[in-house]
Write a structure and sequence with these properties.
Layout: E1 2-6, H1 11-26, E2 32-36, H2 39-44, E3 52-55, E4 58-62, H3 68-75
Parallel strand pairs: 1-2
Antiparallel strand pairs: 1-3, 3-4
Helix pairs in contact: 1-3
Length: about 80
């Protein structure tokens, strides 16, 4: 599973990365975490608001930091 954090490195982006990492670890997933910070790459996903969370290339959350429980539900 590939988890991608789309964002320029703002505090919310960092918080989303930490929450996604915690959720994946709690679920004991085999995953790869990637931070996409290049604005053109972020826009290629069709994302106009950051932070965003993509799983296996599919955008799941845009413009907010969901709770760890919400991220776990997305990752299952």
């Amino acid at each position: 599973m590939k988890i991608q954090i789309l964002g320029t490195g703002c505090p919310k982006c960092k918080k989303l990365a930490e929450a996604a990492e915690a959720a994946a670890q709690e679920l004991q997933l085999d995953y790869e975490m990637e931070k996409v910070t290049e604005i053109n790459q972020i826009m290629a996903f069709g994302v106009m608001m950051t932070p965003a969370l993509a799983v296996d290339g599919e955008v799941k959350v845009v413009g907010k930091v969901p709770s760890i429980a919400e991220i776990k539900a997305i990752l299952k």
